[in-house]
Amino acid sequence: MSEYIADMWRLALDGEKRGILFFASTYVFVMLAYSGVYQLRIAKWFETDGVLLAAAVEKVGGADLVMSNQDYASKALYEYVVGGVSYQGTRISPWIVLASHNARFVLERQMRKIQKTADGHVRVFYNPSNPGKSFLVKPGGFGIVVTFTLAVAPVVLYWLGYHG
Fold first, then answer.
1. Hey, which of 4, 7, 43, 139 has its CA 20 to 30 A from 69?
2. What is the pTM for the complete model shown?
3. Which CA distances in Å does 64 have to 55, 58, 60, 71, 73?
4. pLDDT tens for each residue of 49-75
5. Where do the structural domains in the chain lie, given as residue ranges?
């Protein structure tokens, strides 16, 4: 196995497509597999009611003269109590999304996923071992499956392309 990796390293250093694709697919696999595991862990976090103090889709950076080049991000501020201790959170979702002017609907959809209770509070999902870490939107099964599929796809395509 280590000989194969060494061969791929030499090919990548020489600019060969096979070596570059090997390391690119390995990198994508590692990053997305880590993200998938992280999402699975978050899906098991506890929940509590919180108070939403602010939530908006806002411009990031300076104003751009060309509207389609302007970037946006969702922002939030909320408070919640766990075990008698008060916390403030700012994270909406484990998915950090930066969108252009034309794609800001993705952020607005993310904001609509914030669960509100009948009494006007919001659901806050927090890490039971570190209650100060929280999100307003919990990862769903579909997103987790997509993440793992995207993690495995480049490895499978590489294998089929060079060993299949």
1. 139
2. 0.79
3. 23, 13, 10, 9, 15
4. 999 999 999 888 877 677 778 899 999
5. 2-42+145-163, 46-137
